[in-house]
Every structure is written in structure tokens, then in C-alpha cells.
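Q: My labmate handed me this sequence with no annotations at all. I'd like to see what the chain might look like in three dimensions before we decide whether it's worth expressing. Could you predict it?
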Amino acid sequence: MSRMRPDEFSEFDAVGLAQLVHDGEATPGELTEAAIAAIERLNPRLNAVVERCFDQARAAAASIERDAPLAGVPFLAKDLNIDVAGLHLTASCRWLAALPAAQVDAPLAARWRAAGLSILGRTNTPEFAAEFVTEPTWRGPTHNPWDPAVTPGGSSGGAAAAVAAGMVPLAHGTDSGGSIRVPAAACGLVGFKPSRGLVPVGPHLDELAGGLDCEHALTRTVRDSALLLDVTAGPEPTTRQPLRLPAAGFSAALSARVLPLRIGVALRAPGGMLPDGEIGSAVEEMAALLASAGHRVSAFEFPATANVGDPALVIWLTAIAEEIEFYRAQVGRPPERHELEALTWEALARGTRHSALDYARARRALSVATADLAAQFQDIDVLLLPTTASLPVKIGQIDGRTAAFDLDQWNAASYGYAPYTEVFNATGQPAVSLPLAMSKSGLPIGIQFAARLGEDDRLLSLAAWLEKEVPWAPRLAALRARWSA
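A: Here is what I predict for the chain of 485 residues:
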């Protein structure tokens, strides 16, 4: 049995827990048991973890190298994209429920294990990760630890809720339109989307969602995000045009002096949306702080081509249809109507109707947006903007599941909530949501920063400085204490 209590365990971030193992003050087995206890205590109220492999994790803990970078640190994989040996991959879809567990790790999962992570299970996600909320019909909604009546965001909502509540210090997330950053904003976490091509995806494609997808994690600290990137970044055999990695690594960037930056500030989203008053004020206050620290701050407006909603819709609806076609051979039959949610069924219908020419036109539109935004980034180093336009919506408010579903209404509701993130999936740029403010109602406010493609280290350096200047750790500690009471 663990000598570490769950509440004691949750006070440490991943770097801190690994240091305990390195120093001989804890074992991987003890950390694993503490996380299991936390999951068993908290998950019935939050519904964040949907598959468990506790016995497998206990057995694996005995062979984890104590000098591994993240030795024994408990970790959860999202139920999407990445095969993990011994776990099922269902994308929260009932049609895939009977598929067998994976026999081998995908390249990214192999890197998790090589880094010493103790994988304890999978987290909840909307069906095929298609929403900014996490309310799959099959498994039910995940609740936000700050207020169980509101969404933890999506599509990595299970991961965000688990990390914020203290089940694990970090958890896998995927991001094709904001699915790491939106849950980070909703749950008061660090949500870093790396540059496209930095972290391997798969296992069965060289890129996912037409290149929109990036894989990384939800964390409580910037240093955890940087260290995880250090141990997972880099090409694998199917990676197209891999990016150059910084010679000193991403963690080294956190201690680098932040030189004066040219920072653009955008309150208006690419589609014209403006944020709620509290969120807009939080962004303006952050701009003032950065200006007082010596950075050159100026207004920024997105080019018209950055409104990528329509072409991105073609690409990700087609990607869902292709995923269903891929799994059809494994399941042995096509899905029946009752086995897919309304949005997924719509994606299958539309994605099947789109021609190769439609898809190529959509890709070209994203390329134009990328070029236009890259030109504007010649005048700035970093862009500051909201992560979401509003605070987390009530559970059930955005409906992609039932017969009442209407794609136009769903689009308006979804992108009314989160219109600021998808553009950076189109351009491939790194972007991060940081929990730099709180609303009057007691919900966290995420503020987003983006940098040029490949300048992930610059973004992490700025994030680490902001973590010291505007610390959010006390708020998260108070939240965890509330859930441990």
C-alpha cells in the first residue's frame, strides 16, 4: 500500500513527483497507488476516467527506471487517436465498444512509457472528439470541478477535470480546433498546443484531421508541459517535414530571460466575435501588465482569410467519415443509426458527399490563411487573445447528440463559445491557454498566447514568466482541497 495520502500526492506537479522518486523519497508504486486512490474517490462525482488499467499499472510500476525523466508519475490517456497496449480505443462511440484492447503502443504511447509515466487508464471525450463540451451519449457528461453544472470543455474535458481535481498531475489531450486549450480555460489549467509536426500522431496516419490535430497534454504547471514536450517531441517514421527541436530542450527555455517582445492584442475573433466583458477585461489587463514589463504592445486584427470555419468544417467532417470507414473493417460492419450521435452521423453523411476537389479547395483556403497570418506575424512575436468568448456553458446547452441537433445551430453555439482557437490548428502555430484570471462567479478565465510556427520554446518561456508574475497555483490548490474535504 502507498505511504502517500491522495491529498499529499496532489500537492505535487509531475516534475515534483518525479523528483521524489529520483531522490528515493517515493517509489513509482507508491505514486501509482496514491493516484488510484484519488481516482476512486473523485471519479464517481466527475466522470472523467472511463477506462482503468490499475492492475497493469501496478505491475508496470515495479520495472520503471527510477532515473527516468517522469519516473512513476501517474498519467491518463485520452480515449482518442493513440493506441495504448492493454487499453481500448473507442472515441466514446458505442459502435466501437466491442473492439479488442490494443496489443502494442503507438509511437507516442511508447514515448510516454520510456519517460517513466505510469498509465492508469483513459479519459472521457465527446464522440470522435467533435465538440467543445464533453457529454458523450454512451458514457455521460464529465463535470467541471469548479462547478459541476458546467462543462469542463472539450474535447479533452475528461483529462482537464482529472488534472484540475487532483487525480493525476497531467493527462493526454488532443487538439484539432481547441480541444486542449478550451478545456484548459474551463478548468483553470495550462493547455499547450505544440506546433504541427512536433509530436507524433497516429498510429494509422501520418497526420490526423488533415493536419489540424496536435497531441500533447493538460497540466497544472508550465514546467510539466515543457518536460513532457522534451520527452515526446521529435519525428517518427511517418512524420512529414519534422520541425527542428531546440538544442537545449524545451525545459531549458523556462529559465531563459524573456527579452522585450512585440505583442499583438486581439479581442475580435477571426469570425468577428467579441468576448464577454469579464474575459475582454482580463485580456486588456494582461496587455497592460506586459506593457508595464517593457514589452511593446499593439492592437492586432486578423486578416479576413483567418476566418477558417467553413474550410475547416469540410476537413474535420471528412476526417470523421474517414475514421468511420477505417474502423468499419475492424468492426466488420457499418454503424447503425442508433450507434452514432447526431453530429457524427451528419459528419459521415457530409464527409462522404465531399469530393476530392472540395477537400483540396478547403486545404488551399487554410494554406492562404496560414500565409496571410504568417505575414502579419512578421510584425509581432506573440499574439495575446482570449481562449474562449464566454465562461464554460451549462451541461446540455450545446447539443450535438440528439434528434434535436441542427448543424447551423450547433455551429453558432459551439463557435459562440470558442471562436479563438481553431485558426492556430489551421496555421499549425503553437498556442497556449493560461489560467491568468478568475470571473466574479468563481470560474477560471483562460488567456491565450500564440507564436510563430516552431517557436514553441519562446511561448513556453513567456508562459513560465507569467506563471511567476500571476501565479495560479494557490487557486488550484484551494480547488483540490475543496474536493478532498
